[in-house]
């Protein structure tokens, strides 16, 4: 079975000018789809940045949602107000449900019905 390329990183507008050669570069974290769109939780930068003070890596959770149609056309680049660890799509209610470290219960929901 062969996969059909739909979208590639070169199609994504860059928001970060940071270059981390040899770093742990993760781009699309979670991918969900419905009948109309494909939803990509996206970072476009490394997952971690070294913190010299603590001597540890600070995790940089993605906070962008890219939306493309099934032909691979770029539709939306949405900045989320919380960094996302994982996301799932509730197709029936048209909501993106995410876990984040920003809240005690770790859950946040985004209404996608306006897209």
Quick description:
With 115 residues, this protein is an all-beta fold.
Question: Describe it for me?
Answer:
The structure is a single chain. By secondary structure, this protein is mainly β. The protein has one domain (23-111). The chain is built from no helices and nine strands. The strands form three sheets. The chain has a four-stranded antiparallel β-sheet, with no helix packed on it. It has a three-stranded antiparallel β-sheet with strand order 7-8-9, with no helix packed on it. A two-stranded antiparallel sheet has the order 3-4. It is globular.
List the helices and strands and how they pair.
Blueprint: E1 28-33, E2 37-42, E3 48-51, E4 56-59, E5 64-69, E6 74-79, E7 86-90, E8 95-99, E9 107-111
Antiparallel strand pairs: 1-2, 2-5, 3-4, 5-6, 7-8, 8-9
């Amino acid at each position: 079975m062969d996969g059909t390329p739909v979208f590639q990183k070169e199609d994504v507008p860059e928001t970060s000018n940071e270059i981390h050669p040899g770093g742990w570069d993760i781009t699309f974290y979670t991918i969900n789809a419905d009948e109309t769109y494909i939803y990509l939780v996206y970072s476009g930068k490394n997952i971690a940045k070294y913190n010299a003070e603590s001597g540890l890596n600070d995790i940089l959770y993605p906070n962008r949602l890219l939306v493309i149609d099934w032909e691979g056309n770029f539709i939306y680049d949405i900045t989320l107000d919380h960094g996302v660890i994982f996301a799932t799509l509730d197709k029936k209610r048209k909501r993106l449900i995410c876990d984040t470290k920003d809240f005690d219960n770790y859950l946040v929901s985004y209404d996608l019905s306006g897209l």
